[in-house]
Every structure is written in structure tokens, then in C-alpha cells.
Amino acid sequence: MPDERFLPPPRARWPEGYRCAAMLCFDVDGETTALSEDPALANRRTLMSQCEYGPRVGVPRLLGLLDHLALPATFFIPGYIVEQHPRMVEAIVARGHEIGLHGYLHEKLAYVTEAQEEDILLRCIEILTRHTGAPPVGFRAPWFEVNPWTPTLLQRHGIQYCASAMGDDVPYFHPNGLVEIPGQWMLEDWEQFAFNADPAWGFIPENCGKVLDLWWDEFEAMHDFGCCFVLTLHPWLSGRPSRVRLLEKLANAMKAKGGVWFARGREIAAHFQKHRDARREIDFDALPFPDSANP
Ligand SMILES: [Zn+2]
Hints:
The structure is a single chain. The protein is α/β, with parallel strands linked by helices. It contains 11 helices and 11 strands. It has helices at 32-35, 45-69, 79-84, 86-94, 114-132, 150-156, 190-193, 208-225, 235-238, 241-257, 265-274; strands at residues 20-27, 74-77, 98-101, 138-139, 161-162, 172-173, 179-180, 195-196, 201-202, 228-233, 260-262. Strands 1, 2, 3, 10 and 11 form a 5-stranded parallel sheet that branches. A 4-stranded mixed sheet has the order 4-5-7-6, sandwiched between helices. Helix 2 packs parallel to helix 10. The site of zinc ion has 5 residues, from loops.
């Protein structure tokens, strides 16, 4: 029976005939999520222990899962967490995963000046270079929010891509040539799983089966439409046992589907820099002329 579903052409040409791309991101915020809100929260020991669970327990467990699945990932880590957890950084780098910038103390960029943002960027490039052995090429804004001047600062300091915007479902170029790898809130674990009593964070943690359905449905349609599936997970949330199983089930189903280019951010950015026409625009001009008999 022929496939009669709506199947538009893939949004991009991916390497070696892949149908879509998948970028698995881990934002290792650790204690910075709380400390950037209020440094006095350092005395809330239960809150801090929940945050510390990410780098201490979540990351080694997730690295084990990635080894088991033989999949690459991209870790965005605030400079402060890189300094506090050198052994974690070493373990991530030793496996060939990418480490990208994520602020120093997970600063809300909407509340800093351009000069302050540039100082934070330079400080973090130095820290990541020193701890990973190579300068970072990728950036994910803390809280997913950038300023109008952010692409200029990133390009000025040798960053190849930003993974912070949400206006598309395949990478695109900023006017200055910087690659943007967009994400979306639906493919984030914070909205599904985060909870803290005081300060009040998140909602009632979701059932993993429901989240698997949500993410799988989006992945399957993105596979059909030839998109870039960017999943963003926080080890303090997704390093918990049942959620590690959730990621295992999702990743195995994605592998079984076939045609998925599992790639680090730096590889996706390099693909678009090398093949600047790889992206297929979606706009009104690209639509076929409507059949007047079928309004
Ligand atoms: Zn973050």
C-alpha cells in the first residue's frame, strides 16, 4: 500500500545519504542553576545536593550509557563547573564527546551588558581551552536566551556555532556567517522533570512513558521531514535511573529507524559551512502552485 502521508522534501542534505540529524546535548549546569539565581542558595544544602547530583552521579552514568550505545554527544558546561569538576571534563573528553560554552555561572544574558558578556565569553574560552586541550567551537546560551550582539561576539572569538535559537528545525546562518543549530523547549527535560520546593522550580515530574511518546513522535516526524533533532538533557534530571532508561529506549529506537546522523555540534556546523547550500528553504515560494479545483 503506497505511503499517502504528507511527505515534503527533506529540509537539508545530510552527509552520506542520511535522512536526518540528531544532536544529543547535555547541559551540565550543576550548582550554577541555583547560584546564578542567588549566591545565598549555597547554604541550602538539599537544593545544592540535588544540583551536584548532575556532575557527580548523572554524568558518569550517562557517559556509561553513551559508551554502551556507541553514540557521540555534546556537553555544554558553565566555566565554574568545568573548574570544579576537572575529572568529569577529562572523562568526557577522553570519549571524544564535545564540550561547548555555557556561560561562567549560567548567567542570564538578558541582564548583562555587551562588555560583560564579552568578558564572560573570553574567561570561559580560556577555562575550556585549558581543561579540554583545545579551544571550544560551540556555544549554548544559559537559559537559551541570547542578545542581539551575541553572534558578533561569538564570531569575533572564533566560535563556529551557536545552539540557542528556536526559529527553525534545521541549522541556518546568521548574517555574519555564524551557524545556528536551533533547538526547542519540547525537546528539553527541564519542562518534563524539574522540580524543587523552594525556590519553586518546575512542575510535577512527568511519567517517563509519556515523555518517551512526546519525544519519539517529534523525532519520527523530524525524520520524515529531514530535520535536525536537538535533544537537550540536564544530568541532574536525566541522570536519574528511570530517565536513563528513557534515553536508552529512545536512542535504540532512533538507531533502529535508520538513516539518522548522530553528530556533535561541531560536525553539524562543519557540514553546513562546507555545504552552504545543504539547507532547503521552507517558504511560500517553494510551495507547489495550488490546484484551483481543490481550494
Ligand atoms: Zn543550562
